[in-house]
Specification:
The complex is a heterodimer of chains A (170) and B (151).
Chain A: E1 7-16, H1 20-28, H2 30-36, E2 41-44, E3 51-55, E4 61-71, E5 75-79, E6 81-82, H3 87-91, E7 94-103, E8 106-115, H4 121-144, H5 156-164
Antiparallel strand pairs in A: 1-8, 2-3, 3-4, 4-5, 4-6, 5-7, 7-8
Helix pairs in contact in A: 1-2, 4-5
Chain B: E1 5-12, H1 16-24, H2 26-32, E2 37-39, E3 47-51, E4 57-67, E5 71-78, E6 89-98, E7 101-109, H3 116-138, H4 146-150
Antiparallel strand pairs in B: 1-7, 2-3, 3-4, 4-5, 5-6, 6-7
Classes of the chains: A alpha+beta (170), B alpha+beta (151).
């Protein structure tokens, strides 16, 4: 795959009263990610070509990928492939990039999800539902010490679209 | 081709009533909205204005919906020469209880193709609503300079 073939499909920006280093830590460690990412643990080898893994609360592989850009504490770009059979085969890889920029005494965190082929809004609705909840909770965790208790219903619109494409989901 | 619009969702640990007050009370908005007070009598069809602390009006439009504490909608456009010829665009704020949290969904639409104002509000809303969340959850607003938001 060529990183330059990817076009942004979802962008989410949030400002956080924290240091860039703290936001970086939240994005890249299992200990903090478990608290704001629906119990999922991020494990990442912080070098280009390193593994990027998100484990579900039961320890199983939820998302697998590879590091494409790693510039702590400014930019991290990874492939972010949900571990469902046939998903990558039909829809191609998902690229996620986090950018951390100082903004006054806060930081601006920008998450960009990109794809290398056209993806329908129905499929993209899954991420568009999830990212605001995940990153709202990350912000609360760093600012108040406690994450948000966001209870998220399954992304029905996306699951229905995947089913139509013949992609089996758990 | 999707229509030119901006959508932003944020989850806040607060009540719909407190969030409603934060979105409509001029004294409160001044604390997180780059120092701007929202000024309106909030009757549908009435004028809606953003007033800087020197008394000048930065943005203006009309109230379209006022349904506390669920739905608020108004149009506005920035009055500076940067956006000359652009029309007020409709901003709709929907407040939904979500467990012990509140989900706030902002949609702004009604922009012409290639609108510069759309680019402006796309940068502005995340900073404003992030500051609002911080203020409601921690009692402290964010100190994001206007210039940092624009870059």
């Amino acid at each position: 795959m060529n990183i330059h073939d990817f076009k942004p499909t979802t962008v989410y920006t949030i400002y956080i009263a924290a240091t860039p280093a703290k936001v970086w830590e939240a994005l890249t460690t299992a200990e903090l990610s478990r608290q704001y990412f629906f119990g999922n643990a991020v494990e990442v080898e912080l070098r280009v070509g390193g593994a990027f893994i998100v484990r579900a609360p039961d320890g199983s592989l939820h998302i697998g990928g590879e590091v494409f850009e790693c510039d702590p504490p400014r930019k991290l770009t990874v492939t972010f492939n949900v571990n469902w059979p046939a998903l990558i085969e039909k829809l191609g890889p998902t690229l996620v990039s986090y950018e951390i920029e100082p903004a006054g005494n806060a930081v601006r965190l920008t998450m960009t999800e990109s794809h290398d082929r056209p993806i329908s809004d129905d499929i993209l609705s899954g991420g568009r539902q999830g990212w605001p909840a995940i990153l709202s909770s990350l912000k609360s965790l760093l600012e108040t010490g406690a994450p948000l208790a966001v209870k998220m219903a399954p992304p029905q619109r996306m699951l229905a679209a995947l089913k139509q494409l013949g992609i089996a989901t758990p | 081709m999707s229509k030119p619009e901006f959508i932003y969702v944020i989850y806040i640990e607060t009540t719909p009533e407190k969030l409603w007050e934060a979105l409509t009370d001029g004294d409160f908005t001044e604390r997180y909205w780059f120092g701007v007070r929202l000024r309106s009598d909030w009757k549908v069809g009435s004028t809606f204005e953003m007033v800087r602390n020197n008394g000048t009006v930065s943005d203006a439009g009309k109230v379209v919906e006022y349904d506390p504490p669920r739905r608020l909608a108004y149009t506005f456009v920035n009055l500076s020469d940067d956006y000359k010829g652009e029309l007020p665009a409709l901003a709709t704020l929907v407040i939904e209880p979500h467990g012990k949290l509140v989900k706030l969904t902002l949609t702004q639409e009604g922009f012409a193709e290639g609108s510069k104002f759309l680019l402006g509000i796309s940068k502005g809303w995340p900073a404003i609503l992030s500051g609002l969340k911080s203020l409601l959850e921690t009692g402290k607003s964010l100190d994001v300079p206007y210039a940092a938001m624009k870059s």
